[in-house]
Each structure stands twice: as C-alpha cells, then as structure tokens.
Amino acid sequence: MWNARIASVRVGGMRSVSTSVIQRWFTPEFQVAHLETVEAARSMLEASPVEGYVSCCTAIRDMDQADAISRIRVRTLVIAGAQDAVTPPSDARFLVDSIAGSRLIELSAAHLSNVERPDEFTLALTDFLRS
Fold it and tell me: What is d(CA 106, CA 92) in angstroms, rounded to the nearest whole number?
C-alpha cells in the first residue's frame, strides 16, 4: 500500500491521495456533519510538500518497532478510534498487550479521534495525566 501511495503522490501530487486519506482519517458521519473541519484538513494535506509526505510514507513503510514496544516501562495510555482503518483497534490492543500496565481507551471515531471526539479525547488524556 505504501509503495502505491508514494508512486501516486510522486506522479499526481497530494491531491491524488487527499480523498482516500480523508476517508481514512474521518468517519463518514463526521465528514457529513463537520464539512468545514474536514475541508480544512484536506487543504492542509493538499498543501503538504510532496517530498515530505513521501519521506513520511517511506519511514512508516520501513519501520518495525514491534520488539521495542515491549521495552516501554512508563505508564502508557493508548487511545484508539473504533473505526480507524489506518491503525485499527487490533493494533491498539497489540500495544496494550505488549506494554505492561498500559491502558486502552477506544473512541467512536476514525484515525483522528482527537478531532472527531475532542471532548472525550481530552478528558481521557487529562484523566490519565492526573492519575
């Protein structure tokens, strides 16, 4: 998937992937109800430098930190979007299973749960930081 996305961006620029990225970032319901927020995110994405985006895609494609995760020794909160196709809840559960004493909060959102569910996200984060 990453190679195809890199090739698409190199040939067609950021607009060539903006619709598919937006569909992964936000649930369909949020896209309809919060058009202004979604369009601001699309504009930001489309204004991103191609080489910067390609470099990020390459880094994500090439990284494997599965072994390093189990060495995390600090309190950890994992916040996942229940409808996140980018990093699905199964990935979040893998993190929680790999990090001793970690905690999982799953929000009704896609990839950008902090945007879709800002109050719930902030409450979960501030409760975690205060505890």
Answer: 9
Contact 128, 77 (CB under 8 A): yes
- C-alpha torsion sign, points 85, 44, 19, 30: positive
18 touches 92 (CB < 8 A): no
The 10s digit of each residue's pLDDT in 51-105 is 999 999 999 999 999 889 999 999 999 999 999 999 999 999 999 999 999 999 9
Dist CA 16 CA 11 (whole Å): 8
Q: What's the number of CA atoms in the CB half-sphere (13 Å) around residue 11?
A: 8
Residue with token string 């990935």: 91
The separation between the first and the last C-alpha atoms of the chain, rounded to the nearest angstrom, is: 39
pTM: 0.90
Amino acid sitting at position 25: W
Q: Provide the angle, in degrees to the nearest 10, between the axes of the packed helices 50-62 and 2-12.
A: 170
66-130 maps to CATH 3.40.367.20: no
Going from N- to C-terminal start, the domains of the chain cover 2-62, 66-130
